[in-house]
Amino acid sequence: VIEIGQPEHSAVTTCAYCGVGCSFKAEMRGEEIVRMMPYKDGKANRGHSCVKGRFAYGYATHKERILKPMIRESINDPWREVSWDEAFGFAAAKFKGIQQKYGRDSVGGITSSRCTNEETYLVQKLIRAGFGNNNVDTCARVCHSPTGYGLATTFGTSAGTQDFDSVEDSDVMVVIGANPAAAHPVFASRMKKRLRQGAKLIVIDPRRTEMVESPHMNALHLPLLPGTNVAVLTALAHVIVTEGLVNEAFVRERCDWDEFQDWAEFVSLPKHSPEATAIMTGVNPKDLREAARIYATGGNGAIYYGLGVTEHSQGSTTVIAIANLAMATGNIGRPGVGVNPLRGQNNVQGSCDMGSFPHELPGYRHISGDAVRELFEGAWKVKLNAEPGLRIPNMFDAAIEGTFMGLYVQGEDILQSDPNTSHVVQALSSMECVIVHDLFLNETANYAHVFLPGSTFLEKDGTFTNAERRIQRVRKVMTPRNGMADWEVTIALAKAMGFEMKYNHPSEIMDEIAALTPTFTGVSYAKLDELGSVQWPCNEKAPEGTPVMHMDGFVRGKGKFVLTEYIATDERTGPRFPLLLTTGRILSQYNVGAQTRRTENVVWHSEDRLEMHPHDAEQRGVRDGDWVRLASRAGETTLRALITDRVAPGVVYTTFHHPDTQANVITTEFSDWATNCPEYKVTAVQISPSNGP
Ligand code: SF4
């Protein structure tokens, strides 16, 4: 704790980093933060926090924050500080000019999973109602869009099914493609507590993660080769079906029986057995059979997964395969069981809920539905376009083709976080007006014409929705240092563009969301103040929210089994690129580090290292700490080696928190077949000694 004086006032707010959504008491002295104290009544964290949230205030007051709007005619010109009014006028004239010249669909925007529900709602409203098209997408495109597709297909809605509290009722936890100890540490502590009480842990991950290595966990680790999730999950299903471990009563009552039978026949094929898939997946068949038996028969089984599931060419198929397993074993619809995406960003769930996808209005309702469109048309007093808009990668392609010329980016550094950096550069350079709305002059801003300063979570009111669908208040404790909270910026920008949105406070935006979204009809700031938080659906049927979903039936009616044929990624190893690279995070840093590198957390992280097995290192004459060149078909970068047997021979691993690492220079162009989520987690690479950058 860094003490800078005694507090004079405080407010309870929500951490703006990961999807756990820890509550903090921000203690203030005037406009200065004295300290951030984990809030004991916070329902997601119960008085705990991690080192990221504790020091999160650091970036709010960091000297590199941009506090004045800036504009420039060309990306080759220097930035010019201007008034807010001039910046809005400039941006509006550019966007209007673009639409006149290239048509209504030539502009669009990207919402931020870091901003509040109310702020993302406003951006999608501006685009749909103000721009007159559906060219809105979210940074969730590059992380959890397969969750949206996979869970909506099988269960009927795209959200985690279980509350954090009910981990205390779990007997078996399966963690796939996630490292909660590093990325969701406060929830990981609750998992570990239950594991110490005797619950069993199965970890499916190419790397021996901190969850596996934590003492007393007795984890059964299935160290699969990157890119083989679907083969492993189908092999687990094979064991469950062929050994008679299906919960037939549950399936008959709750799922489509005919579809189940087709699925059972499919997974029973000999080619899906653990033995038949062992060479392909790298997983010991004995361990895989044991894992299947533990999950199916060990009591309440809960599955937690992360980006190691979604960021693959079969990301959506993998989410579906997970849902199939949960339905087949009856591990869904009561406390202690479920399918739970561990959301990386604080408000990924919320930004998706708020209609940030080009095909869905708030509440996951397809834009082509006449009734729902009419509902929004009545409220917004506009005619809405029924055609789904462009996804982020389609926006980039259209920009290069010369048909998409204006982009408003809310709180997201797409140049650092999207794949195939050179393609993104080409797309941004092709546009006539890029508006970046952010805290810092990020990499994307190098290609922007308008910079609108953003505000931090400490400077505004609103709500975030965490990984367990928990809607929590964000409370303003500081006057916005830039002069305007993000929701006010979007409203002013919309007005300059000729589309008036009138709200005096974010609570009024939430009231509008509640009026238009069936899963939110019971949500209001008054209720959040009274109860502390609520988990959606929160409506007449569940006035205090819904901790566990699908209790009496799936949202879609009958649970849907879908066949999950394993199709190997097009990214292949070969003589030139014989190793497979995968990526992850460390505890003290968050994503590309734009915030955490501007806090006290810098003391725990100075660089990203490349983990490689001693066998691979020796073959290449690499010693611990040496500089190495990491090259793929797409590009190359340089970083230092860390020799460890946490990774298997043939697999290497790095984090991507430091900008110098340039992880996305080397990632491929492949993406999930259903959602275009980039395949960040599998890249064929070669490593050779280097003298350094
Ligand atoms: Fe909690 Fe996540 Fe924030 Fe850490 S980063 S304090 S786990 S919300």
UniProtKB/TrEMBL annotation:
A Gene Ontology biological process term: respiratory electron transport chain
Protein name as it appears in the record: Formate dehydrogenase alpha subunit
GO molecular function: 2 iron, 2 sulfur cluster binding; 4 iron, 4 sulfur cluster binding; formate dehydrogenase (NAD+) activity; metal ion binding; molybdopterin cofactor binding; NADH dehydrogenase activity
Annotated TM spans: none
Alphabetically ordered keywords of this record: 2Fe-2S, 4Fe-4S, Iron, Iron-sulfur, Metal-binding, Oxidoreductase, Repeat
GO CC annotations on file: membrane; oxidoreductase complex
Organism: Bradyrhizobium erythrophlei
Residue ranges annotated for the 4Fe-4S Mo/W bis-MGD-type domain, each copy included: 8-64
First and last residues shown, out of full length: 241 to 933 of 958
Polar residues bias: start-end ranges: 686-693
Similarity remark: In the C-terminal section; belongs to the prokaryotic molybdopterin-containing oxidoreductase family. Belongs to the complex I 75 kDa subunit family.
Presence of keyword NADP: no
